[in-house]
Design goal:
The protein has about 230 residues and is mainly alpha-helical. It has nine helices and no strands. It has one domain. Helix 4 packs antiparallel against helix 7. It starts with about 40 loop residues before the first helix and ends with a helix.
Length: about 230
Amino acid sequence: MARLIPISQPFFSSNTKPPPPPPIAAAQISDHLPQIISRRDATVLLSSATSLLLTLSPTNPAFAFSLGISGPKEWLKDQKKKSSRFLLAPIDATRQALQSAYLSLTSESDYTEKDLENLQNLFKSSARDCVPKERSSLVDFQSKSGVEVCTFKLVVKNAASLLDDKDPVKLEAENILYDLVRSFGSLIVLTNGVDMNLPSDRKKVADGVTETISYLDKFEKGVKDCLEI
């Protein structure tokens, strides 16, 4: 049986090909799922960072001038850069989960039905409620009530909050997010009705993971461009 192996460092980016993985001993995937930041935890991190910035923001222009800075907007921009690790944390956690999935897919271990189920759940968790068809009933209800439930959308919204709506940097990040969500949706669908012990089917899923990681890397760059880091 296959297993997912947590990785502390990025495995590969969109510009490089992944090296051959080492042999992996058979074990249940469920025993080795990487730790993923939940949507709730990610939302709390983003909200806390935003609230802190707004609380500390010097609203008096005279105060900003006395500190030798150009104004509250520039001050907020600087604070966003300093707190960028909170914004990027969900992206990094998702990347590690996908890299772990890739290693299990490219190993020679057999897959059981339980392994496949765990892999599908991992993909759904990694999508962070951004694929509408894969949301739970509660999350779907929240979404229909006007609550933004997609963690990646919250990341872009926070990172680009100081940019104009038609700013090309913001628009580019939003376009990449659309591609990322579409890629996650395709990846989840791809695992339905496949034989994971059939090399050709397994390779299709592995290639899908590679594509999704590539879009994730581009999305991260788009967020960093919004933050100017």
